[in-house]
Amino acid sequence: MKRRLSAAFALAAALVAPAARADRIDEAWARGNDAYLRGDYDTAVAAYEELDRDDIVSPDLFFNLGDAYFKKNALGPAIWSFERAAALDPDDEDVRFNLDQARKLAARQARDKIEGEDHDALWIRAVTALSPSTETWVFLALYLAFFATLFVRRRADEDARPALAAGAAILAGVTLLAGAALAGRAVLERVPFGVVLPDAVAVKEGADVNYKTGFQIHAGLKVRLLERDQDWLRIRLANGLEGWVRAKEIGRL
Amino acid sequence: MLSMPVRSLRLSALAIVAGLVLAAPARAAGPTMTIELDRDAVAPGDAFVCEVTLTVGNEEVESYHAPEFKGLRILSTPQVPNRSTQMSMGGGGTFIQNSYSWRYELTVPPGSKGPFVIAGARARVAGRDVKADALTVRVGASAGAGRQTAPNGMPPGFPFDLLGGGRPQAEPPQSTGGSFLRATADKTRVYVGEPVVVTWSLYTTQRLDKFETTTEARTDGFWSEDVPSTAPKGRLAYTQETLNGRVYQVAPLTQRALFPLRDGKLTVTPMEADVAQVDFFGSAVRAQHLKTEPLTIEVVPLPREGRPAGVDDASVAVGKLALAVHADRTTVSVGEAVTVTVEVRGTGNVRNAKTPALPTPQGWKAYPPKENVALDFANGVGGVKTSEALLLPEKPGTVMIPALELVTFDPETKRYATSKSDPLRLDVTGDANVGAAAHTPGAAPGGPVVENVLGAALRPIRARSRLSRDVGTTFLRSRAFVWLLFLPPFALALTSIVERVRGRLAADSNRTRRRDMRRLVRKRLGAAEAHREAGRAGDFYIEIDRVLRDVLAARLGHGVTGLRRDELQQVLATRGLPAELTSRVLAELEACDQARFAPGGATEAAAAMAAALERADELIGAVEKAPLREEASS
């Protein structure tokens, strides 16, 4: 009898738990939005972070969290949040706009920037010059045009075939370039990056606080993550400078 | 160029030391908040400054609430506080003191008597509430600003480096030392709200090494805006000018646009400054004290004639100004915010132009607007004033924001005009339930507890009632993209293969014929088998006859129906079918004819049919394999 009762309770709990979780998520979301709209950004951040801790993955959540951090003038976490939203939905124009605004503000606030710290390598700038959707559509248009030319050539008169073959060759070349840009973007997505969270972080020459400080970086700077040693991360700036920072000071993308 | 005098450096060092010493008791006292005015009493129409200062140690300031200015008109509010940090060392450690100050520019509305109380400024610092005492504003004759600012934002007493001045040629009229200050206004009679640009300049005929403003001009009764200077900061840019027949080197010190807040004769008080030359040892020689003449501006009220009925002075925008309304997007989903901007643009009194209130469409929530003013002095005094409001649709549909109106008065033409914006259409898509009740009652539209939600050029949050958990996906990551990649080469290859096979098949007509013939033979033999099993002998032999003739027709390339047996024999002989096979075929056809009408028992008939079927099958195989000659062309 007891076993049956326990099983019934377990079944009921299993059925009720997802609904309760959904209610909790909606409640926290509404609480965060309401607090934000009232100008209570601390409460808004707390509510949004509650959802983040609950492993909710949503571009809207990270977008709102970024806005709330921005309003608190916490530019590092704001940029990190916008970057996370952008990673989930790279074509969201609002996310790109706010990320750009936060980066500009952070750049103005950082007084002693290192030369080239945020100047990405040429290939990164090349593959991210256009938005992902624009790159995709350009590539697809060229790709389909190339095959359409091949189809037409098969049925064309002998006289027209050389011209169509030349057109197909040109299209093939341009399509390869566009495809290389897409492939580069795919490679870039596999590279681990992080964002500096505090206003200023001292970068050490080794994975310990007693090592000499090599240089200083500022909130919102996007860095490449190379390796981890306990609580320390080895990072690399866009200009090639490397060093160690505490893992908690970096928001991983 | 001379550096700062040594004495000043010493004084600065002493001041720093004194600051460090004085910082110790301050840090011990904990967070403090003060509120002060820049004068003791304020005359109606005068602009004055109220400054709230919060002094803390290294604690975090969690929140700040502005004071209430009941009965006073707010001319400007700070977006962010000014922050200064002071560090002191001693007692075995380093102590930090942070000061935050919020500067509010206010005025007493004309006709108000006061006194007014400014109260309610408070902050929360590291979990503790800190409050400022209430402050009473007395209304009376203005005592003038207590704190003054030097031109270009320099503090009073900041020594300008004046080396590089021009050649002195004549004595100026107001100074025995060859230098004088002059204040000039571009107009001396204006309407209330009409800008007057006043320029303070230094005229000199001799080399000057030091310049120090000692008293700034007061502009009581005016709202004042500094006109940005193009001169390098900290230096004076000289031009040459002839005045009363004498050539002077002239350096503009500062320029301000003054907007009269009330009518009557308003006075701009003199600016005073000390100038001097510096000798070889750095000591000031030939020092002079300079002073401008006061300026009197006659301000007349806005005319009543021609003014639209029901419009008061405060609602009239003075200048050549135009009104426009636009939105950052005109099609949105339920729950997505729209930023609607009311914009007043042109020349004139842009800052004090009253932007018309934006009506809230039914089924929408509205949050208090944020005003922003960007002045532009490139073509006269002007700029743009914007009022950005956040609107949140709660149900789908189309709403129209009607045309807004702004009454303007152009001082040049002395006429009133009404500027109208275009109506704005907003389309909302989606489900009403999606955007409903995203906010608590505390967030009622326009309610006093709702703070402005618009950040500086930041797109607003997504305020949908339910969190969208769909991870955004791009076409690049979708399966459709992969399919589109594979489809064209696959289609091309398939087309190529199909065309090649079809070509090969078309070239082999004999094979096609044989294939068709086999299909026909299977069909006929199947039908014959069915007749045999059913015991229909007549129908069985008809099918056997037909299949033999069809096979012959297929091999010969033409029909054989209707041919007599001797004719058929001749045709087969002509095409080279072996005589033995021809005889067997003809015998079988003959047997079929006879069997169709021959009487007999059921058992014998069944046995005969089985034998006939076997023979027909054998004959068909033989005919198919037999070599034939090509038909001779006629």
Report on the structure:
By secondary structure, chain A is of the alpha+beta class. In chain A, about 60% of the residues lie in helices and about 15% in strands. Chain A contains eight helices and seven strands; from the N terminus they run ααααααααβββββββ. In chain A, a hairpin with an 8-residue loop joins strand 2 and strand 3. In chain A, helix 1 packs antiparallel against helix 2 and helix 2 packs antiparallel against helix 3. The model of chain A has no long low-confidence stretch (mean pLDDT about 85). Chain B has about 625 residues and is of the alpha+beta class. Chain B has eight helices and 33 strands. In chain B, the strands form eight sheets. In chain B, strands 28-29-27-25-31-32 form a six-stranded mixed sheet, with no helix packed on it. In chain B, strands 1, 3, 6, 7 and 8 form a five-stranded antiparallel sheet that branches. In chain B, strands 14, 16, 18, 19 and 20 form a five-stranded antiparallel sheet that branches. In chain B, a hairpin with a 4-residue loop joins strand 31 and strand 32.
Alpha-carbon Rg of chain B, integer? 52 Å
Q: Mean of the pLDDT scores of chain A? A: 85
Query: Uncertain spans of chain A, ≥5 residues at pLDDT below 50?
Result: none
**Number of DSSP strands of chain A?**
7
Low-confidence segments of chain B: 1-28, 143-177, 434-456
Q: Let me know the number of strands of chain B.
A: 33
In short:
The complex is a heterodimer of chains A (253) and B (634). Helix content of chain A is 60%, strand content 14%.
Outline the secondary-structure elements.
The complex is a heterodimer of chains A (253) and B (634).
Chain A: H1 2-37, H2 41-53, H3 59-71, H4 75-88, H5 93-109, H6 122-127, H7 132-155, H8 161-190, E1 193-196, E2 200-204, E3 213-218, E4 222-229, E5 232-236, E6 242-246, E7 250-252
Antiparallel strand pairs in A: 1-4, 1-7, 2-3, 4-5, 5-6
Helix pairs in contact in A: 1-2, 2-3, 3-4, 3-5, 4-5, 7-8
Chain B: H1 6-28, E1 32-37, E2 41-42, E3 47-56, E4 61-65, E5 68-69, E6 73-76, E7 82-90, E8 93-107, E9 116-119, E10 122-125, E11 128-131, E12 135-139, E13 160-161, E14 179-185, E15 189-191, E16 196-204, E17 210-215, E18 222-226, E19 239-243, E20 246-260, E21 264-268, E22 272-278, E23 284-291, E24 295-300, E25 317-327, E26 331-333, E27 338-348, E28 364-376, E29 382-393, E30 397-401, E31 405-410, E32 415-420, E33 424-429, H2 432-435, H3 479-507, H4 509-534, H5 537-556, H6 565-574, H7 579-597, H8 602-625
Parallel strand pairs in B: 2-12, 15-24, 25-31, 26-33
Antiparallel strand pairs in B: 1-3, 3-8, 4-10, 5-9, 6-8, 7-8, 9-12, 10-11, 13-17, 14-16, 16-20, 17-22, 18-20, 19-20, 21-24, 22-23, 25-27, 27-29, 28-29, 30-33, 31-32
Helix pairs in contact in B: 4-5, 4-8, 5-7, 5-8, 6-7, 7-8
